[in-house]
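Lab meeting, action items carried over

1. Structure of the two-component assembly. Owner: GW. Status: complete.
Input record:
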Amino acid sequence: DAGVIQSPRHEVTEMGQEVTLRCKPISGHNSLFWYRQTMMRGLELLIYFNNNVPIDDSGMPEDRFSAKMPNASFSTLKIQPSEPRDSAVYFCASSLIGTGGYNEQFFGPGTRLTVL
Amino acid sequence: KNEVEQSPQNLTAQEGEFITINCSYSVGISALHWLQQHPGGGIVSLFMLSSGKKKHGRLIATINIQEKHSSLHITASHPRDSAVYICAVEEGGTSYGKLTFGQGTILTVHP
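Predicted assembly:
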């Protein structure tokens, strides 16, 4: 398996532009997580899906952020309009969560977003 | 919300030294994860444990549920162990893997 795939790996955009980050989870995994990492705040969970359904989006900073998972093999995180304070590394991770609950998460390589 | 604290924040060691990184949390959990982030930025899962001890090569992770504390040990450290080590907890009562992260420990191992 190729692991979790994220695109683009780097994104530079100007304030006010729409940004779309993409993630393909590991085949067979039923849970997908979007994280943001900054120097100031470290790793933070933004939103996670189970069986393509958003379970908890309490980490989404504001209405400018939205995430979708139209099917089991694809998810997007959109920022519209983008602001300089959105500059961060965005990670996607996937996992197979069963009745036992916890399970290892596999992280993608991340997308480094810079908003000028 | 669970508060996850790691210590130390920065750690410098000489090759061959035994290293310990600590993690404490405030609320009961179902599992604790240790992650490694290399300078290139990629994150890999090292351990996931809910009790006792686990060992992978030179790495050992322990957890004490009663004391709400976990440790990550590296024996015979090597410069390639230089990375950020992140502790994350999975809240009890959930089955969906939601993680709360510590701030990370930056480890530098000199040859």
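2. GW to write a short summary for the group page. Key points so far: The longest strand of chain A covers residues 42-50. The two ends of chain A are 36 Å apart (CA to CA).
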